[in-house]
Amino acid sequence: MDLGAFSVSLSVRDIEVSRAFYEKLGFTAFGGDPAQNWLILKNGDHVIGLFQDMFEKNMLTFNPGWDSSAQPVGEFTDVRELQRELRESGVTFLMQTDEEGSGPGSFLVVDPDGNPVLVDQHV
């Protein structure tokens, strides 16, 4: 099962303070809008998202159809197929995408320890 590009989405109290901290670790902004309280940072192939007042918890995020630079890839497993496979495996969903649709879609599951896992397709 190929889930696409991986990042960690961090729920932060102050996006500018967090940005400054992660820039000290060598991350640079490459997407998002701090005025809208979200920013995507990258260090090599490592990607983190900073989200102020958007999520309750930190979460793992996967983006089918994207590489680590948020660029479309040629072939990928659609989010609806991933959702079907996980449902057949007995995974419970907090949020689902319309399996009859196409293009962008997302679903949210929670691991056994309460960590949210978002699969968010943008293409």
Spell out the blueprint of helices and strands.
Layout: E1 5-12, H1 15-24, E2 28-33, E3 38-43, E4 46-52, E5 59-63, H2 79-88, E6 93-95, E7 105-110, E8 116-121
Parallel strand pairs: 1-4, 5-8
Antiparallel strand pairs: 1-5, 2-3, 3-4, 6-7, 7-8
How would you sum up this structure, described in words?
The protein has 123 residues and is an alpha+beta fold. The chain has a single domain (5-121), classed as 2,3-Dihydroxybiphenyl 1,2-Dioxygenase, domain 1 (Roll), CATH 3.10.180.10. Helix content is 16%, strand content 38%. It has helices at residues 15-24, 79-88, and strands at 5-12, 28-33, 38-43, 46-52, 59-63, 93-95, 105-110, 116-121. An 8-stranded mixed β-sheet has the order 2-3-4-1-5-8-7-6, covered by helices on one side. Strand 3 (38-43) and strand 4 form a beta hairpin. The longest helix is centred in the N-terminal third of the chain and has 10 residues, at 15-24. The model has no long low-confidence stretch (mean pLDDT 96).
